[in-house]
Specification:
It is built from 4 helices and 19 strands. The chain is of the alpha+beta class. It has 3 domains: 105 residues, conserved putative lor/sdh protein from methanococcus maripaludis s2 fold, CATH 2.40.420.20; 90 residues, Efflux pump adaptor protein, beta barrel domain (Elongation Factor Tu (Ef-tu), domain 3), CATH 2.40.30.170; 117 residues, RNA polymerase II/Efflux pump adaptor protein, barrel-sandwich hybrid domain (OB fold (Dihydrolipoamide Acetyltransferase, E2P), Beta Barrel). Helix 2 packs antiparallel against helix 3. The longest helix is centred in the first third of the chain and has 40 residues.
Length: 374
């Protein structure tokens, strides 16, 4: 082999060794840097919000969705057919029991009444004459009885006339508020024609259902609180007035009724809201915000904030919870008062993860856990 060729091959081999060595060396350096960066990231603290487990006043309560019903309510309709000749109501106004609302044409019935009243006067006169004659023994008992019967029939005819005239009037059967008027002057109506809806708003009923397992906790006279959708910041107080006579076969629920005074007529039939019935004495319990509790197939757990030498860490702890109310949950096992639990950011955590606390999140969570929230 030519010496020059061997020298060139040696130089080429040396060049390739240096080239590949540099490439592999660079890759090793990059891999080391990445490993160091990941190691540093693994020790970076995760920012979370936390709050303190507090001992709070808590009372046993039942909650249910209620529908408001009028104590009395009806769609008024005429008793007889006829033409509307008088309207004595305004839509939405309050009316009194017995107040005339709608008048139907009663001219024929009033003419008949006048005729029957004249007949009654004549029958009354004849009866008086027969009684005088009978005392003087100038008439028979049969003639007296016939005069008495005619007088009674004349009185009955007048009563019938007056009843018919009354049926041609639509009057309020009870005191309440009318809705929108459904008829107009000159309209011909029948007994199936709706005239106006009348509702009594004060007092008003709230009707709801509870499971049969909770029946033993209820009794008439208990105080009931009502919060109505659309009326924010106001709670109405009432009394439990009736418990259903039977449990429904399909749902195993029982109907319950509470009565509210409804001063100012703020509540209306058809509204819905949430009723709260206090069934027990107030007691001290441990509570945390609902957001602090995580649920999985193995149960419930929270992340407890612990202080270690290298900083704060999140420790997973199984707990047992009770009733939830107003964004707070009762913890019956697994926590102690004064411990701190994570309320936001759990999705980024794993057991033993380093954490740092968000001041804004921690303060807001702490305020949510205040005793007033329960």
């Amino acid at each position: 082999m030519d010496k020059h060729l061997a020298k060139r091959l040696a130089i080429l081999a040396l060049f390739l060794i240096v080239l590949f060595g540099g490439v592999f060396g660079w890759r090793m350096i990059v891999a080391g840097k990445i490993k160091q960066a990941m190691a540093k990231m693994g020790h970076q603290a995760v920012t979370v919000a936390a709050t303190t487990v507090k001992r709070t006043d808590w009372s046993a309560e039942l909650h249910a969705t209620a529908s408001l019903q009028a104590v009395q309510g009806a769609m008024l309709t005429p008793q007889l057919a006829g033409m509307v000749t008088g309207l004595h109501l305004k839509s939405g106004e309050k009316v009194r029991k017995g107040q005339l609302l709608v008048q139907l044409n009663d001219s024929t019935q009033r003419a008949k009444l006048q005729n029957d009243e004249s007949a009654l006067e004549l029958a009354k006169t004849k009866l008086a004459q027969q009684r005088t004659l009978y005392k003087q023994h100038n008439t028979s008992r049969l003639a007296l009885q016939e005069a008495d019967t005619a007088y009674t029939q004349a009185r009955a005819a007048i009563s019938s006339d007056r009843a018919t005239i009354a049926k041609l009037q639509v009057r309020a059967p009870f005191t309440g508020h009318v809705g929108l008027r459904k008829v107009s002057l000159g309209q011909y109506v029948t007994p199936s024609t709706p005239v106006v809806n009348l509702q009594q708003w004060s007092p008003i009923y709230a009707e709801f259902q509870i499971p049969q397992q909770q029946m033993a906790q209820l009794s008439t006279g208990q105080t009931v609180a009502l919060a109505v959708a659309g009326i924010d910041g106001r709670t109405f107080k009432g009394k439990l007035t009736a418990i259903g006579a039977q449990v429904q076969n399909g749902t195993r629920n029982v109907d319950v009724q509470a009565t509210f005074a409804n001063a100012g007529a703020v509540l209306r039939p058809g509204m819905y809201g949430e009723v709260t019935v206090r069934t027990g004495q107030r007691q001290k319990v441990l509570t945390v915000p609902d957001s602090a509790v995580t649920y999985n197939t193995y149960g419930e757990y929270v992340y407890v904030v612990k202080k270690e030498n290298h900083g704060l860490v999140a420790k997973e702890r199984n707990v047992k919870t009770g009733e939830s109310r107003n964004g707070m949950t009762v913890v019956t096992r697994g926590l102690k008062a004064g411990e701190r639990v994570v309320t936001q950011g759990q999705v980024k955590l794993h057991p033993g993860a380093m954490i740092s606390l968000s001041k804004s999140g921690a303060s807001s969570a702490a305020s949510a856990a205040a005793p007033g929230g329960a």
